[in-house]
Amino acid sequence: MIGSVAAGSGNDFGRGFQSFKDGPAIARYLQSPKSAACDLGEFSNGEVHQFVSSSGIGFDAEISDIVNRSSLKKQLNRIGAGKLVYLMYVILTLIRFQKFDLMVQLDGEEKEFHDVWFATIHNQAYFGGGMKISPYSKTNDGVLELTVVHGISRLKLLLVFGTVFSGTHTRFKEVAQFSAKEISAKTPHHSIYRHVDGDAIAKTNLEETVNYAVSASKWQVIQQ
After folding, report:
1. Given this model, what pLDDT does residue 111 score?
2. CA separation for the pair 160, 151 (Å, rounded)
3. Can you give the pLDDT at residue 171?
4. Which of 123, 209, 140, 134 shows the shortest CA–CA distance to 177?
């Protein structure tokens, strides 16, 4: 069984999965332990890797790469203001980011998107320090969700980001969301930043296809 204690500036795991709030909560759990079966996400581009929350490509992954390398984030974390660094780098990246084309398959159904800002595959609702990016995601439903933000101006994207924390961004026509057990994604013309559970990893290669799948009821997570 897996449990966690909330710490740091993000805590998206604790939002999507239950976390212990304090010592007494841990003591109560140890006296009467309960758990629930939850899904894991998987992605493969030659090797298979797993994720608990989300994995994606594009704008958000580039921000993750910059933020996680930033000494400013460590300084702001010391005073409890770590989230401010995300806002700063969102604005800076917004100015210089190059949009891309994306080809996906959802349980075998092909779709193509142009002028894409980012595409994220979700096992739970939250990422980026409390952004409810995929409000309909559940950790035990046997599917993953795909969110694609495309065809939107830089100014309007800022407006959309203002609604992500409440999950109301899905009303914008430029935000496409789908559910599937298997998802594949390819960026045919650009090498794009990728992230897994908030950590940036190697960029995609041109014409590289990344395959995503759900592992249903793969692990046990604590219940309080």
Report:
1. 97
2. 13
3. 94
4. 134
Nearest alpha carbon to residue 62 among 191, 205, 210: 191
Half-sphere exposure of 203 (CA within 13 A, CB side): 13
Q: Please give the C-alpha separations between residue 213 and each of 80, 96, 192, in angstroms, as whole numbers.
A: 36, 32, 20
Phi (first) and psi of residue 133, to 5 degrees: -70, -30
Q: Residues, the chain, total? A: 224
Cα–Cα distance for residue pair 63/52, rounded to 1 Å: 20
Quote the CA–CA distance of 19 and 149 in Å, as a whole number: 30
Q: What φ, ψ does residue 176 adopt, rounded to 5°?
A: -105, 135
Give the span between the Cα atoms of 192 and 171, in whole angstroms.
Answer: 26
Distance CA 172, CA 149 (A): 9
> Please, are residues 56 and 121 in contact by the beta-carbon 8 Å criterion?
yes
pLDDT along the chain (224 residues), means of 10: 74 80 76 88 86 92 82 68 72 90 96 96 89 93 97 92 91 96 93 89 85 92 79
d(CA 63, CA 194): 10
Could you tell me which of 149, 63, 163, 64 has the C-alpha nearest to residue 99?
A: 149
C-alpha–C-alpha distance, residues 188 and 207, integer Å = 5
Residues pairing with 104 in the sheet: 111, 185
Cα 25 to chain center, whole Å?
28
